[in-house]
Design goal:
Layout (H helix, E strand, L loop, with lengths): L11 E12 L2 E12 L3 E6 L5 H8 L7 E6 L2 E2 L5 H8 L2 E4 L11 H12 L4 H14 L15 H12 L6 E5 L7 H18 L2 E5 L3 H7 L2 E6 L4 E6 L1 H7 L3 H8 L10
Parallel strand pairs: 3-8, 3-9, 6-7, 7-8
Antiparallel strand pairs: 1-2, 1-4, 4-5, 9-10
């Protein structure tokens, strides 16, 4: 089951205000405004083409918005440059959809990479930190393996370990259950919950997997390509049971639109 709902008194650690995202001058997202509270597991949902991954890539600073502000811990990542931008980026970790591990590097070397980029620690210290992070995700005995020598689920775990290497306060997960069987997916959900509770990390998860949505997220937003923005926001159970928009109900109950159902 999901983590306890975050205390409303906790401060927002992410603010997205009136975001507009464009590709080649064409709007993909418009008027997107929401916040993420410290310590919660927050979901970004929606059907294919709704802009989920696009939104995440803007939130982690890969793409500049056409308009709007994105604040991480009170600092605007859109306007930050140089050392300030690097400082903001060091506060967040990212697990990309397919893990994005470097195939020619061992798991330890993959997890150590952000430490090499952002710190001046001696090599033994970086190795020890990487070993500890791999231990946290259950891969302590696999540090010398290459990515192609472990399973898909283990690759996702290694990618989460790399995302934690700099002790970030926020971790983004892009479709963490993609390509995994139900048992492995449930095991990954349990890992996320354990890390959220034990380390008080704020997680932002891009997903369309209902099992994971109900298992781990405290609150969600749902994007809709019709309006190029947020169509619903709240606890997933409330949206499933009480949403007014038929598209939201269909998503959470896995129903076909009426025009597509067969008699």
């Amino acid at each position: 089951m999901a983590t306890a709902a975050p205390d409303p008194a906790h401060r927002p650690v992410i603010r997205v205000d009136n975001l507009r995202a464009e590709y080649a001058g064409r709007a993909v997202l418009k008027h997107v405004t929401f916040h993420v509270v410290e310590g919660e597991v927050f979901g970004i949902l929606g059907g294919s083409g709704s802009g989920k991954s696009t939104l995440m890539k803007h939130m982690i600073g890969l793409y500049p918005p056409a308009r709007g502000a994105i604040e991480i811990a009170g600092r605007d990542i859109v306007t930050a440059v140089g050392a300030e931008r690097r400082s903001i980026l060091a506060r967040i970790g990212v697990m990309y959809q397919m893990g994005a591990l470097f195939g020619s590097m061992t798991l330890l070397e993959n997890v150590r990479l952000p430490l090499e980029e952002f710190t001046q620690l001696p090599l033994p210290a970086m190795n020890r930190i990487a070993e500890l992070k791999l231990g946290l995700v259950g891969l302590g005995e696999f540090s010398d393996r290459l990515p192609n020598e472990i399973s898909g689920g283990q690759q996702k775990r290694a990618a989460i370990a790399r995302a934690m290497s700099l002790d970030p306060s926020i971790i983004f997960l892009d479709e963490p259950s993609a390509g995994l069987d139900p048992i492995t997916s449930a095991s990954l959900d349990a890992l996320v919950l354990d890390l959220a509770r034990s380390l008080r990390i704020t997680f932002v998860i891009v997903t369309h997997e209902l099992a994971s949505i109900f298992a781990v997220t405290d609150r969600v937003i749902m994007l809709d390509r019709r309006i190029k923005g947020i169509v619903a926001e709240g606890r997933p159970q409330d949206l499933r049971d009480h949403a007014d928009d038929p598209v939201v109900r269909q998503f959470f109950n896995r129903e076909m639109p009426e025009a597509q159902t067969t008699p």
